[in-house]
Every structure is written in C-alpha cells, then in structure tokens.
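Quick one:
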Amino acid sequence: MKILIGGVLYGATFFINFDNIYVNIAVFLLSYFIIGGDIVLKALRNILHGQVFDENFLMFIATIGAFAIGDYEEAVGVMLFFQVGELFQSYAVDQSRKSISGLMDIRPDYANLKRGDDILRVEPDEVEVGDIIVIKAGERIPLDAVVIEGRSMVDTSSLTGESVPREVSADSELLSGCINLNGMLTARVTKEFGDSTASKILDLVENASSKKSNSENFITKFARYYTPTVVIIAALLAIVPPLFFAGEEFTKWLVRALTFLVISCPCALVISIPLSFFGGIGGASKLGVLVKGSNYLEALAKTEVVVFDKTGTLTKGVFNVQEVHAKGMSREALLEITAYAENYSNHPISLSLKRAYGKDIDNRAVSKVEEIPGYGVEAVIKGKTVLAGNSKLMKKRRINYFKGDIVGTVVHVAVDGTYAGYIVIADEVKSDAAQAIQDLKAEAVQKTIMLTGDAKAIGEHVAHKLGLDKVYTDLLPADKVERLEEEFSQKSEKGKLVFVGDGVNDAPVLARADIGIAMGGLGSDAAIEAADVVIMTDEPSRIASAIKVAKRTLSIANQNIFFALAVKLIVLALGSIGLANMWAAVFADVGVSVIAILNAMRVLRIKQFA
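Output:
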C-alpha cells in the first residue's frame, strides 16, 4: 500500500507544477520516505551493527547522492523501481519456498488417542510408545505404528513418490506422514513422535541446507570480498578523475560512482544459488530420494562409478522358490512332500519352501523328523522316508542325483531311496534393477560394479542378467572396502564414486565412498543415519533419477552464476563510462535477481526426472 501511495505522489510531480522549489523538494522527499523509508532504516541499522555492504546500503547511498546533486526525479524513481522489484522478488522466493515445503508436507497435525471407550484428539508428541491410536479415513498417520485392527489403503506418495496406494491390515506397519484413504485403522504406536519417520525426514530435509555445495561456498566467499571491493572502486571512480584529469566535473563522476554502486549488489547470486540447491533437494524428495545436503547433490551430478551391494539392493533380499524339477512325480507333489519334510524348521530355505507350497500342513502326516546338520533333513511322511537337503546328503546316502550347473541354492529330494528331483531357491532380482543399470549408463556413468558375498556362479549370473560391467564375489565386509579402494584408484580426479547398499551391513563401505546411498531406507533409522542419500522407495531406478535432478540443479546454478556475473560486468562497465544510468543499475540488481530466482524454480518441475 505504501508503495502505491508513494508512487501516486511521485507521479503527481510530473503533472503538477510547483512554483516554489522548496515545496517541490518537499514533495519528492515525502514520496521518497513513503516508498523507501524502510530501506533507509535498514541501511542505518545495519551500519550501526557493522553490516555495511548490502543492497540497502547501496540504494541508500546512491539515492541520497542523487538528491545531493539535484536529481530528485531519478532518486525517487530508482527507489520506487527497486521496491517494486523487491516485491516481485519476494513473491518469487515465497512461491518457490511454498512449492518446496509443499513437497514435504507430511507433518501430522494431531493424533486420535484411544483411552478406554473414549477417543481424544491430542498433539502427536503427547502420544507414547504402546499407546493405541485410531486413524480415520482421510487422516494423516501421526506416528509410526502397527495395525491391530482394520483394513485400508494407504497413500505413501508423500514419502516415497509411489502413486499406487498400499493395502494394510492387521500386523502391517504404518509410517507417519502417509494418508489413510478409506477404512478406519486401530494401531499400536511403535515410536515416539520425535523418532518417527515423518520427524526424521523433515529434520533431514530442513537441515540439508547446512551442508553447502562448492557453488554456495564460492558465492559466500565471493560476496564477502566482492562488495567491499566495488565500494572502494566506486569511491575511486568519484574522486580520481576530477582530481587528476583537467575539465572533468565532480558531479558527473559522482553520478557514475553512485550508479556503479547500485549495479554492484550481488543479490542475484546470494539468493538464487542456495535456492537452486534447496529446490533440487525438494524435487528429489518428491521422487522418494532424500539428499542430506547440497554438497551431496552437487557430487551426485559428477557420478562416474556406481558400486552396488547385491542382496537387498539389486535383489529383494528374500529367498523364494524359483524352479521345481520333479522326477517320477508331479511338480506339485514334489513341492508338497518337501514342504512337509521342512515343516519343523525355521531356516530361511525351509520358510521359502512352505511359503511356495502355500497350504496348511497336517502335522499328523509327519511321524518322524531328524535334522542332519550341514546336510538337510530326513522325515517319514505318510509312511514314506523323505530326504531333503544338499548334494552332500545325496552322496552320503548313495543316491544318484542331478549334477548340472545350477544358479542358486538347491534342495535335492529323495523318496524311499529314489531320487525325486530338485528345487531351486534363490534371491529374486528387483523388477527395475536391469532398467536402473541402463538408466545409469544413459546418464554417462562409466562403470557399474557389484560386490557380493555370494558364490561366483550366483554373482556372475546376476551381473550378466542385469548388464553390470564388473562383479566381485565371495567377499567379506572388509574385502568390500578393499575392492572399493581399487576402484577409487581407477576413476578420474573429478569423478565421484557412489556406493549403494542397505545402510546397515554396509556401513564401512558407505562411509568410504564419495556418496553413500542407502536402499530400502523407508522407516529404517540405521539407513537414514549411515548414508548421504536415502532411496525411500527401495527402487534402484531412482538412483538415475537422483542423478538427473542433481545435474539439472547444478546446470541451473551455473546458469545463474554466469548470467548474473555477465550482466553485472557489462552494466558495470557501461556505468563506469556513463552509458548506463541509475535505472539500468536497478535492473542489473533487482531485475537479474528476479530472473535468476524464477530460473532456480525450474528444478521443482520433477516430472521430467521420474
């Protein structure tokens, strides 16, 4: 409103002729202080606090100087233009921050705490571990919990970027920040609000700005030395020519010096560069990728080598029956008799067999079970003696078995001394793993490598299936660090090496890599703590998306640096020789800032990265 009033008063001076010069000056001064009084106060306050060299000081000195030499119209007009530019700049910054904060709008407002038959609406931080909460349809899940009653669909897009809702029922885990879509859920709280997924993610994103990129550090150092330098140059520009060159007017060089000061303000760089990286972090989070700082985002853009752990990273980390080869009976019968034989064991292989069978097991059919450590199991099922185990068991009992090359864990089965076939159990490759490797190569990643503790046959099979460049097998955790050191010695000086693991077992390797990326980090405290980047969706393909965001962010930041410096230098040169007036100076400051900020906001358009 004050800008409008001051602008109207200033505009009146062009249509109303004040015969008295003092009335004329008074009207200009009044409109000046209405429009720019806050700028003057800020400049004086900053000077008192030792913060001299900022845009407020530059505008104050320039416009007061214009008054001193009698350019009243220009003094008020420049302040008006500056304030209008600041208004547009504030709007641009505000809109970009709203867009970024909207990406992570996962903070719950309340929790429905169940006490007896009553349901109380309380603050999420008032709820304790073990308390029972109720989440109604359409409400945001306030704390991490486990469902004890109810069935519903849950929208996890705010955390993972996944558009497809997840179905939850009794014993399903609920993560704070997600939205319950339809049914009512009753759940037991497993973590306090401060330790919940939503709180950790919010804290991570909000504190990401504390880890500055090289570009941001450059701008901070640049501004620290740049502004005092241009003030000294402006002072010399006003004093030296009139003193040392005959016929040069002091007033002319003072105007040039004041114009030079206004042009010199580095607002566009100081505001738009951090905003570019903040926007990049926000855009990545919308894709389900949490980046812990601008420095890691900048490093991602220079990725040259990506090293993967296998289990839980490129594969699902869950053993499943892959093949059933029966001899003398049906596949279903072989799977059934093997599941019965393994029924009393909780070994992962036994569990995978029972899961593949998928039916209830009648324990009365099993009359005898003997586990043979290191070999397998012997059981009597419906009067038949069944052997289920590895090749050593078959050799021990002198049973002729299939000896071909098989990738995976093999369970050989014999019934009453006769070979009945074999079942292959293996870790399943993630559906997007092969696409992830292709996408990384499309992003100019020069080498993709897998490290695994698995046997050579299994490791090479997975590597060939996915199209990896290299694989190291039979590795212990310490061996992985050694292999990583080898790869470090082979990459270029500027290139970055990324390690992708589960964030728990691979902590030493995650710490050694230039960038550690944790897969399956959704709800995992250890993963969030160990890594520099967390892929919340458990999808390897998101790594290439994160690199795209990083490259886009760095490109926009570099565009802003080049554009702002180029315009500054050109207009500074023109101003110093009198070819740029105060209006051009304000454009070089405020106009460039607005354009750079609008350019920085482009990184928020994340659809291009998905």
